Request: fold
Amino acid sequence: MSRSGSTSIIKRLQISAPRGRPLDSSQLAGYGVSTDLAHFYAKSGWLERLARGTYMLAGDRLDREGCLQFLAERMPGFHVGGKTALAWQGIGHNLPAKETLTLWGEKNNRLPGWFSERFSCRFTVRQLFSGNLDSEFGLKPLPESPGGPPVSVPERALLEMLSEVGVDQEIEEARLIMEGARSLRREVLGELLQACKQQKALRLCVAWAKELSLPWAAEARQAAAGRTGPGRWVSRIKGGRTLIVKP
Reply:
């Protein structure tokens, strides 16, 4: 390709490509940029290489939401979950700009280095629900960002947060956040509790809901009936502490 032709393509790319998010090989191809041409543009300083087959426009600044959506389009099950999802929907603390994002995905997924280097985050691939539950159940963009990344609805986010208690989530903070989750939808929570595979999340949800006198406590206990066992649940958690949940 002639120099004038490659210059014309990069100008079109600079004008038309979305800002704030990476561009992968398939997107670049849509602008007429082949793999070899992308390599040439990177060497010439018009593109910045983030990873193999992934670039950004030189001088651009990656936007958190744009990058989250980019990953969601390429990583099965990727979503914003747990404490972050609760906070984004007004439950719990308002997170500062540099708060660690709680992100979830399917097994064998890994966050690319270019993302974790730019945004403080924690990525979880724990399989919290049985295969009988649709993997996308309780995941959807926020109403104010219809084109944004999928976010756990409060009912799913609560169980995700509880599953991390004693590992990456402090007990006292989790209980405080849960105290603000008073308006959960009973039918949605019930379906999630029936599919939840983790005893810790099940038992904490039922026990703390009762202790905190949450309006949906009775429905939670009914949904989890027969799945938590009759006795108390004891587990050694991070820091050498013991977590005891009464029946």
